[in-house]
Amino acid sequence: TASDAPAYLEGLNPPQKEAVLTTEGPVLMLAGAGTGKTRALTTRLAHLLISGRANPWDLLAVTFTNKAAREMRERVGVLVGDQVEGMRWMGTFHSVAALILRRHAELVGLTPAFTIIDTDDQIRLCKQVISAAGVDEKRWPGRGLAGVLDAWKNRGLRPEEVPKDDAFQFADGRAIDLYTAYQERLRTFNAADFGDLLVHNLTIFRQETDILNAFRRRFRYIMVDEYQDTNIAQYLWLRLLGTDDEGRSGGNICVVGDDDQSIYGWRGAEVENILRFEKDFQGAKVIRLEQNYRSTGAILSAATHIISHNKDRLGKTLWTDADHGAAVTLRGVWDAPEEARVICDEIEAAQVKGRSLSDIAILVRASFQMRAFEERLNTAGLPYKVVGGPRFYEREETRDALAYLRLVRNPDDDLSFSRIINKPRRGFGDKTLTQLSQVARQMGASLSAAGAALLETNELKGKSRSALKEFLDNIARWRSAAADLAPGRLVETVLEESGYIAFWKASKTAQAQGKLENLKELVQAAEEFETLEGYLDHVSLVAERSGDTGEGQVWLMTLHAAKGLEFPVVFLPGWEEDIFPSGRAINDNGQVGLEEERRLAYVGVTRARERCHISFAANRQVYGRWQSSLPSRFIDELPEKEIEVLSEPGLYGVKAAELPAYSRFADIAADPERSYRTPGWQRAQRARGASTAPALEGAARLVASSTPGSSPFALGDRVFHQKFGYGEVTALEGNKVDVAFEKAGQKKVIATFLQSADA
Ligand code: ATP
Ligand code: MG
């Protein structure tokens, strides 16, 4: 009866309760954004613990991003208290797979001390493999091979399992050989890349039934969030673990997902996994949720409208009890720096009104868009936190320091060895390193082992000999010290004794001070861990600056990283063709790519609880080149009645009528009726004592009059523009030029794109 129901069930709706209480047998929760899937999942975890059905260390709970995993841990912690500490198998697929692999590393030819290499090292290693095989590196770059290998690993394929036809993707059919060579090297280095974590798990489970069965017995309850984004390897992994000892389906696995939020197809995720769940796990109960608890009516309506343009979807109903709320705003601006400025102004205004900065998120399509925001946030003195962006642990000094630690932990880690053998300089020249590599290759051993062997000969003399000896002795000494020292102390010791800190202290470069501070932070981060291994795994897999929780900071991240999260206020900049939808996604995958981009737009809008602000710029610098851009077709897919247009008139040079299908909003601001709603515009007009019926040129001049720089054109010049054709210059402001085009009408364009057409 209701009065007996435990407190943690209160407030859940009936289907959510059903998902929590159906503890036995497979369960699929399939529902749209913000319907409380994750909440039901975390309550289910709590229920299993509180009702005594499972111990914390017997629950397997996986999700995709580190931030989502952390939030899940927090949410469960609120319900169960200290027990959450014991949930070691809760995390990302990668982190759980790494834990399993550490226990059984010997079975795939590694030791428990193996290193997890990151994308950078992966590409370096690919390059080495390509050049060692005599394959043309110009035609077949390391990055390309890394992509091919990732794709295979995402499908759970080992070299011997790759279909022969697939080999022709790369290096004229030699790709499988390169894959084999790459894996051999990794094994010599005692290392694994991200993809290996799962593939090695699969190998172990398939070869050692006893081990698999032990894990099956342990993980009596399995929970997966964001199931729509699992790739084949992850799917196979879950299937192996989620079936019973006799291999029958029907384990207690509960997966949660939304086909409309599948955004990792480009990385090998398969939406089909969610569609075939009922087949694979027989007797699965399917639970649908329809009430959205996250967003206002306007936001939900905007999101629903966008996603309704996708053909390939299951389709579902979503409704909300919440207020309709403020309209979704839409703003066009001149260029990316201005977009950043306008958004930061709004953030400051919101802060003045009492909004906490950590309530606000800026979600971009591509990480290159972040720079403009970081600069502006810095200038404005607004603290911010980048999630999953260019990361602390990817910086030179942190990578160097980590290379030391990895080598201490794993003497065979050649990638780390070659990174630091001469950093700081110890008179160990390139020639000696080449010599050492040759010996290593001949011996089939690592650089450390080859070094030790060389020292037993007379091959090396003088400085190189003493440098190598000292280096190897140091590493060995730190290794034995590692047993007794806490990670923080060890990091400090290594950095001091290796001379690495002294090296930056002596450095005259401008960045040296910052680097020293980062090294200090690294020591601090290590102090939070009990073992060096725990710390290094954290760095490889979690890899974000620790210590700051985002409290009082604006969030800045990509749309992909924002999956599963929510914020009261969300800014979605850069809604322009080619940026979003990404031109590359469409080029590579056509309609399928476009639909995935649209799901990403749906994910973006549905992150917002109260306010959602969309913007686009008329000009953008991509890879250092200016180009003019068109508003995203997704803007055209927004329901007009939910949108408030805030653009300043005439700020961008695109006119709706001439553009293909998507452009309705491009020139809205030039329409007197619509621009009437623009507060900035009204203020400006009033200040000038002008009527509110705007003249396009006037408005443009008004806004841009202070722009520095100059154009090589003069009033009345005849000019040619790639997109708009011939026209005559009617006004000039810095690098921006107003042109009356013969066909396209009045436009504002960048001088760089204009050619003089005077005969
Ligand atoms: P997404 O698809 O984006 O991952 P989701 O379905 O996982 O969304 P949640 O994050 O679990 O949704 O929930 C969205 C918001 O709604 C959260 O703030 C959550 O606390 C709230 N919520 C969920 N269920 C309820 C409920 N029954 N009553 C009130 N609020 C709820
Ligand atoms: Mg969720």
Tell me about this structure.
By secondary structure, the chain is an alpha/beta fold. It folds into 5 domains: 2-103 and 198-291, P-loop containing nucleotide triphosphate hydrolases (Rossmann fold, 3-Layer(aba) Sandwich), CATH 3.40.50; 115-189, Arc Repressor Mutant, subunit A; 298-390 and 550-675, Rossmann fold (3-Layer(aba) Sandwich), CATH 3.40.50.300; 392-541, PCRA, domain 4; 706-756, Roll (SH3 type barrels). Strands 9, 10, 11, 12, 13, 14, 15 and 16 form an 8-stranded mixed sheet that branches. A 6-stranded parallel sheet has the order 3-2-6-7-1-8, sandwiched between helices. α25 (583-605) links the parallel β13 (567-572) and β14. It starts with 13 loop residues before the first helix and ends with a strand. Residues 649-709 have low confidence and may be disordered. It comes from Parvularcula bermudensis (strain ATCC BAA-594 / HTCC2503 / KCTC 12087).
Describe the structure using short key phrases:
eight-stranded mixed sheet, six-stranded parallel sheet, 759 residues, alpha/beta, binds adenosine-5'-triphosphate, Rossmann fold, Arc Repressor Mutant, subunit A, binds magnesium ion
CATH third-tier fold name of the largest domain: Rossmann fold
Q: Which of globular, elongated, flat, extended, rod-shaped describes the shape? A: globular
Structural class per helix/strand content? Answer: alpha/beta
- CATH homology-level superfamily of the largest domain: P-loop containing nucleotide triphosphate hydrolases
Residue stretches low in confidence (pLDDT < 50, at least 5 long) are 649-709
Domains, number: 5
CATH class of the largest domain: Alpha Beta
Catalogue the ligands: adenosine-5'-triphosphate, magnesium ion
Question: Hey, roughly how much beta strand do the residues contain?
Answer: 5-15%
Q: Figure out the total of helices.
A: 29
Fraction in helix: 40-55%
Q: On the 0-100 scale, what is the average pLDDT?
A: 84
User: How many strands appear in the DSSP assignment?
Assistant: 21
Rg (C-alpha, Å): 29 Å
In the CATH classification, which architecture of the largest domain applies?
3-Layer(aba) Sandwich
Main beta sheet strand tally, sense and closure? 8 strands, mixed
End-to-end Cα distance, whole Å, is 89 Å
